[in-house]
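Hi Prof. W.,

I finally got the RNA-directed DNA polymerase prediction working! I wasn't sure whether to trim anything, so I left the full sequence exactly as given:
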Amino acid sequence: MKSAFNQIPLHFADRHKTAFSTPDGDKYEFNRLCFGLKNSPKAFQSIAQEVLGDLLHNGALVYIDDVILFTKTIDEQFELLGKVFERFERIHLKFNPSKCQFLTKSCKFLGFVVTPEGILIDKDKSISINEFPVPTDQKQIKCFLGCCNFYRRYIKNFAKRALPLTNLLRKDTPFEWTSETQEAFDDIKKAILNPPVLALPDPFAELQITTDASSRGIGAVLEQKYPNSEHEDPVLSPIIQKIDQNDVSPQVSNYFINGEGLLCHLSKRPARSPRSNTTRKQVCIPHCLKAKILESIHSEYGGHLKFFKTYHRLSENFFWQNMYKDTKNFVRSCTVCLSRKNGFKILPAPHQPVEQSQGPGEMCHIDIFGPLKTTPKDDLQPDETEVKGIVPNPRYNLRARAGNSAY
Ligand SMILES: [Zn+2]
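And this is what came out:
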């Protein structure tokens, strides 16, 4: 907008609040909303929101004096533009044509570039971060981290990667620029220069929350599968391509496409298997199906078997890289298995007082235990209640006599 704030007239009763004097002793007051007042942006924002009314979040967004209109078709865009112009004209607010962009597929908005594929970091901003000089004191580190913090959503494990720098901000830590801090500084710059494209979330698709915490940091990620990512597997797609091109390099020699058009993997059975000298044909599982396969093999149809049995069943028919590790993690974190492990523990029997006998030999107990090593003699160790001692009492041919003797 053209001199945005100055387009708003000030109420006569409030004009004295903007008064200022010149060195000559003259006093002036603003007749219109001026820059530099604490509540100018807020006042302008509320006016712009009021003007847009029902169009806000319904094809239009506004941040102070930046208005963005988004539609699916060009006709809708023209219709919306007409409405917006009419509303702003009604209250005599003017746009600056040199700052306006019409009918573009991508645009810069609040430091980001919005495109149909997703939201990107504004290249001009990332270049200025890349040119940031090596900090020489805490203030400069704060300044650098503040700039990067704006784009931290584009940097995986930002807190962890920036730790050597944030450590320098501690009060009792002397400022010492080491190779470790230089590495962290370069690493963050590099991550900002090569950012991923953040896709827009689909409100109707499934969302997944992943949380983690350690002594170094705490984090949570809200994830959603990007529609195209389900069809393209980063590991399998290159292999299929190589097979299509009749490539016979060792990386693809164990792979083939079976009669049903499925990518399969040939592998030897483990040495302890009864058919250890034979090979097995495993169907290659793409990344997006791993969890479903694990779920059905272990939980749905597997009866929550332990890791080795689950892995054995899985590896008979299926294959993917790191299947061993993934299966171990899956079984380890299975909530049903965890609840069983803790809920069905066999507790030791409670201790009971032994009834006191009246005289020696009146009452005794025999603990039967074993299996033990075979000895030349059969030993029987009764516990005598009265004297509370173990009386070793060797007996020959105990079994033979068992029918006739009290022992
Ligand atoms: Zn389980």
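Confidence is low (pLDDT under 50) at residues 400-407. Does that look reasonable to you?

Thanks,
D.
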